[in-house]
Amino acid sequence: QEQFVESGGGLVQPGGSLRLSCTASGFTLDDSIIGWFRQAPGKEREGVSCIRSTDGSTYYDKSVKGRFTISRDNALNTVYLQMSDLKLEDTGVYYCVRDQKYSAVSGPCLFNKYESYTWGQGTQVTVSS
Fold first, then answer.
1. What are 22's strand-pairing partners?
2. CA torsion, points 28, 33, 36, 37, in degrees to nearest 10?
3. 10-12 and 123-127 beta bridge pairing
4. Can you list the positions of beta strands (E) in the chain?
5. Is residue 115 a contact partner of residue 108, using CB atoms and an 8 Å limit?
6. Torsion sign (Cα): 88, 5, 7, 20
7. pLDDT tens, 7-19?
């Protein structure tokens, strides 16, 4: 069964850092775009950052650009999201999915609400003082 397992979330103060991991099980990351998404209570799920597994090209939402860094380790079948200078509005459940449809690396991040992705359990990130 193909699935992602997200981990690394937690409670952090504003200005703090966390590193999230997204490990694939049952498939490899070859020729895919992997996206990190988040959903805050009462809000729509939004694309945070996406990365192409082949060449490492990336996309960041403007709300996280300069603070978050997405990376991948194809040998470990894992994608990471390093989050720094965290803000209250970064609070939410963070998920990752794989897409093999879009050619543009930004595609899954921008248009995920039009797709029928299978979402995992996610990992909770809470930024609070």
1. 6, 79
2. -120
3. parallel
4. 3-7, 10-12, 18-25, 33-39, 46-52, 58-60, 68-73, 78-83, 92-99, 123-127
5. yes
6. negative
7. 999 999 999 999 9
